[in-house]
Queue: 2 jobs
Job 1
Amino acid sequence: MGPQNEDMDAQRLASITADAVSNVLFFHTKQITPPADIRRAGLENAVSAVFDLRSHAADMAVAHLEIACDAALNYAQEYNELHPDDTINPRWMYTCVQALLSHQLKPALLEGYRIERLHDWVAQQKGEPPKTHCSDPGIDEGPTLSSVELLTSPSQQSSELDVTITSDDDDDDDDDDDDDDDQDEASFFAGATNARQPIGGTIKMPPKVPWKEADIRRLIKLRAQGLTHMETADRLNRGQGAVENKYGRVVKEPAWKPYVAECAARFTRVRRGKRKILAKEDEDNDDREDDEQDVVVVASRPVAKKRRKVTLAAAAGFE
């Protein structure tokens, strides 16, 4: 399947990588970018620069896959420098190129699977036989990628598969958004941090799930609080790449710039207020420590003198 890894050279691998990057760019820009143009952007040089490292690899196919993905990251960096208003998320570029080229360079990564479909689960609820069971024809049994189990038993969530869970309660978005304001500011002011959920605790939404206005507002507020992209992604129950990409676009949209500025100003005031309180507490603690030291010094002197007199009298034989 595809070119043999034993016969691979840098130019050939660069050409394959360019095809994958071209597909990713089409998804990002909605415009066809010929692979030849991508190679001229330095992709072939990026592959050649690290191609000799494959001699240290235990698996040549995996080495070629990693070299291709690394070269794609180089291209993403160059693209972002040339298009500061339409940047590509490097992690997204890496993941996409890896997924596209795995089928060609390391097909074993995609073998030995059995997928249980949501359609099968729906058919079962209706008392109908499954119609869409998917499995690798080369095996009888294998690991199961089950979206059904993820939806029915979140505690059995697989870290390899993301499934969409959305709410239809659109009518409550406005009220929930107001509540989020109070909760976010309160948790920030108290110094609370968002602990990452363990695997099995949540089900992340895939990047294609539409963003509602309430989601975008919450995204802006969480970032204004100072949360990292990773922490924000956990709060929103989305992937980190999706959050990074969406936030990068939102802050550049004229319609959202006033709200971004408002949140930034609001939480800047909160941070300043928190710093003032912490500074005041530190100052009070220092004053209390100084007072305690003064009390100890004053109280200890007479005691020390009294003990010294008694000791001297005893030594002189007057007792």
Job 2
Amino acid sequence: MFVNPPDDMKMHWPELQGKDVEEARKVIQEECPDVHIQVLGATSPATMDYRLDRVRIIKDENNKVMMANRGFPVCSIPLSNFNLLVCSTVTTVSICLILPSKT
């Protein structure tokens, strides 16, 4: 079951895209002191649980923020940052492997 977040709860930090991870962590912690902040690489495995008490920062290989969001682990990484390698559907589950582009 999904719980809708309160209307005033910040869910995404697009303004942090391209910033240093530690700088982003400080901004999020100041705005939301009660959240757990988790930093992951773009291709790191992550659970798919919906947690409003967690903010995930997805970083690139230069330790720069690609995205930061609350709730689901993936929501809006620009697809231009990735190369699609494998995509297949097994019954009702889609499985895709994406890697950061080297451009």
